[in-house]
Amino acid sequence: MRFLIILLVVFGIGIGAWFLLRDDGVVEQVTQARVEQALIANGVPDPMADCMSERLVDRLSINQLLKLERLAPQEGEARLPQSMGDAMDRLNRVEDNEAVKQLVRAGSGCGIQMGLDLFGG
Fold this sequence. Notes:
Blueprint: H1 2-21, H2 26-41, H3 46-59, H4 62-68, H5 84-94, H6 97-118
């Protein structure tokens, strides 16, 4: 009887972990929603933020996504960078070249996709 209870508990933990961690699981959905909201809060239009968040969650670790939060304006900074220098300063704060590369890639890919959709391509 004890063995059966232990087996059921292990099985339950396994099912719970699968539900949380699988592709499109709860953890990924919450993370994608958080990334999307962060992008919107920083001036990215809703459709672009939706597209980019999906790509970023697929390509970056949670740690890298957290590093991207450093792009947010700090005290005394405008919501959106006012110059190329301001934008570069924010990108340098991330201190993760791969995360920045994937951010640029996601933005470029989504921009091209949205442009093609707009013009019927």
